[in-house]
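Ticket 4471: requesting a sanity check on a complex prediction with iron/sulfur cluster. Repro inputs:
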Amino acid sequence: MASSALALSGLRIFIRTFGCQMNENDSERMAGLLAAAGAAPVKEETAAEVVVVNTCAVRAKSEEKLHSYLGRLQSRRRDRGLIVGVAGCVAELRKERLFGPRGTVDFIVGPDEYPRIVDIVAASRSRRVLAVGRTRSWREGGQSLALRGNPASAFVTIMEGCDNFCAYCVVPFARGREKYRPLRSILEEIEGLAGRGFKEVQFLGQNVNTYRDPESGEDFPSLLLRAGAIEGLVWIRFLTSHPKNFTPALVAAMASSPKICRQLHLPLQAGSDGVLSRMKRGYRREDYFRLVADLRDRMPEIALSTDIIVGFPGETEAEFRETLAALEDIRFTDIFSFRYSPRPLTAAARLADDVPAEVKRRRLLDVQALQKDIQSGLNAGFIGRTIRVLCTGKSKKDEKVYAGRDEGYRVVNFRSASDVLGRFVDVAVSSAGPHSLRGDAIQVL
Ligand code: 5AD
Ligand code: SF4
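Returned structure tokens:
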């Protein structure tokens, strides 16, 4: 490490992150490793000597954003020796194009190579570096050093990759098969976080429900219960869950521990059995509804959010209306909705992308309009109530205005006379919109 520390001493590095929470956590870990080796993370891209772009490949649009960002960096790369590196899912997927003779980057670091980021950046100062490849088991790297973006809530990656091969999804090709982090390493990290005053952890993985400790075989419910026993930690969340792997034991573990937030992100993707089957999701509409009923039976206040794809190949108007009906029945607190786009290597890429663009656009608008009404209605029900909020942000414009989330992961903006960043606060809700609640702090815990 000593030579690397010298090699990166003072080197100004900017990390730009696209995509999911997993990428955010990977960036936090890379930043931590680089800083420990002497590099200086900077907040402005223009001040950097090295830019690392952590990329997302899940939808065509995310990849387009990357290419336009890389395009903008090229003149500084050519004229002023800026070093540009690409990490994350696109690194793995598009390595030939990015690294070829007409490539636009100086180094590529695939998701399994992050623990070597210091050596890769050091080497990239004298030559182009391609560091990709697949490991079969979890590789430790930088967890304890992570430079976290949030003062109270920490992401903790517990598994990586996915074995499901949903027909539309590129993740298994970009991130590889499922790899699980040893339980003792996870517990060590969260004990450290609790000791440093973090109030919340969010376990991350593409499919956290299938987690198994590679050493003891202990499963995900067991991990949750062990985490729940750690002193100091108050809220525990996890994502993403797959409906087909959500076992009764997991429902029971959630219900039995008050520290596990009554909140779940549970991607439905589509409301009709035909589309679900073509998507190879492994459950039917009825199974999903039964799981929701079970969760609400055990935890009546649970907040559920979801992902929806419209315009999957062959989706008829009738099938699409089943998605709308499912949204109306379930009443999610939040949804992330997307137009289907074909992704390389996936099974669905071999199907005709036959729903016309304007139909996809209209279906997306229909989904979003319906969901906006649902959220307005649900959030209006909070007016006049007092809710507990973990404060994680502060307004830049008004120093008395703070932001945080409640147990259900709703965004809450509120006024407070004292500085409450990083604290739990009880907020009296006075107004609500479809995307947030507003109110005043009445008690700081
Ligand atoms: N087209 C559109 N949306 C997609 N997603 C994943 N792959 C695609 C695709 N090819 C969405 C899914 C997933 C979320 C992270 O992104 O809804 O849950
Ligand atoms: Fe993609 Fe399906 Fe795996 Fe989620 S479960 S990452 S949608 S393949």
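Notes from triage: The CA atoms of residues 60 and 341 lie 6 Å apart. Leaving this open until the requester confirms.
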